[in-house]
Specification:
By secondary structure, the protein is an alpha+beta fold. The protein has nine helices and four strands. The longest helix has 27 residues. This is Glutathione S-transferase.
Length: 201
């Protein structure tokens, strides 16, 4: 199988971390593609009509896309327990929260990179950051006991989301007022799978 991805994509990083945590690198080849909202790579468009990465080209059956679909597939394929039935709804909710942080942070990045300066909206950027910051606060206040439990997809997603903010929006200082989450993230980032998928600044 092949994973169409970009190292800088936090959504792709989720999948890449799962590949390593589930020992699937011999089964799935990572294919680096260059694509953007205004210039979609042809291979990406063929795999995902929405033109987004990651997308997983399977040996049998159509390509699948959206990181949450891919990680569920990889979890089932490897027989891992990143989506444990005993706390499935909590894991899915935490993953969705992390994905929302990624979406808001990525929107901020695109606003600066894809739109001319005269057309950029600081109010819109701040509204995106407010979503991300509110979600970070909620994780710090409500989810720390879950983050400290056995490895699951919610933890991987949160780590990737916060790492993306470090990469693109470090000046926002998300750690301020979130000491417990910051300490957890520092420890989680030392995992081999996270170190192997670090994006050069």
């Amino acid at each position: 199988m092949k994973l169409l991805m970009s190292p800088a994509s936090p959504f792709a990083r989720k999948c890449r971390v799962v590949l390593r945590e589930a020992d699937l690198l011999d089964t799935v080849e990572e294919v680096n593609v260059s694509t953007s909202p205004t210039a979609t790579d042809a291979a990406v468009a063929a795999a995902n009509p929405l033109g987004k990465i990651p997308a997983l080209l399977r040996d049998h059956g159509p390509a699948i896309y959206d990181s949450r679909v891919i990680t569920r597939f990889l979890n089932d394929h490897a027989g891992t327990a990143f989506y444990p039935q005993t706390r499935l709804w909590e894991v899915l909710t935490l993953e969705a929260t992390a994905d929302g942080i990624m979406e808001a942070a990525l929107a901020m990045t695109y606003e600066a990179r894809m739109r001319p300066a005269a057309q950029q909206s600081s109010d819109w950027v701040e509204a995106q950051w407010a979503k991300a910051h509110r979600a970070i606060g909620a994780i710090d206040a409500r989810w720390m006991s879950h983050l400290s439990g056995p490895l699951d997809m919610g933890q991987i997603a949160v780590a990737c989301a916060l790492a993306y903010i470090d990469l693109r929006h470090d000046a926002r200082g998300w750690r301020d007022g979130h000491a417990d989450l910051a300490a957890w993230h520092r420890t989680f980032m030392a995992r081999d799978a996270m170190l192997a998928t670090v994006v050069p600044a």
